[in-house]
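Troubleshooting log. The previous structure file for this entry was overwritten by mistake, so regenerating from the original sequence record. Sequence copied from the archived sheet and checked twice against the printout by T.R.
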Amino acid sequence: MTGCSNDSADGSGNDKIAGADTGESGSATPSAAVSAAAEKNAPTFDFPSDIKVTVKKDPTGDAKKDAILRDAAYAAQARVEAFTQGKGQTANMSRYFAANALTYWAERVSTFEKEGLTVSGAYRYFGFEVTDVVSGQAAVRYCEDQSKAYNKEIKTNTVQRTQPSDKDFVLYTFQTALDSAGDWQVTQQSWKKGDASCVQG
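Regenerated output below.
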């Protein structure tokens, strides 16, 4: 989703969010069910063979916070899956996004697909943290490494390669809310590319 975020944190830009504005030929390994880690009711993600998603998330020791971070990680993967499928309202997107956040990504994915683009490469998520919890709502932050994620032209399968930079590391901040099914859904979002807390060598 390169092409999905901007430098500020308002959720309205088009840069490189889930591997969309950059480029490298797909060399990642298949990861269809990347998060089906034997959890009850865990979602299954259907990624193409040139997409790899890695999540590094340590348990906090607090059951509620762990559930919030689990669903935040699922939401990150759902977004990548949506871009690979060219559909913004997949089952997983509708499960882990709601309100303005779901509307934004549905429009962004549709526009991206109409531009003849999809994504390729590897996405890595780390630095998960719950920063606030108040009666059915929570604030979450995490980092995305897009340094090996790229945009790919659908018709030609040409990967749009770019030079790595600090802006390949994106800090996401989400507002989430607990729905009636027991899932923590992203309702509001912001991001910042090149944030010092996420940039890695």
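The helical segments are 63-85, 91-96, 99-114. Archived copy saved in two places this time.
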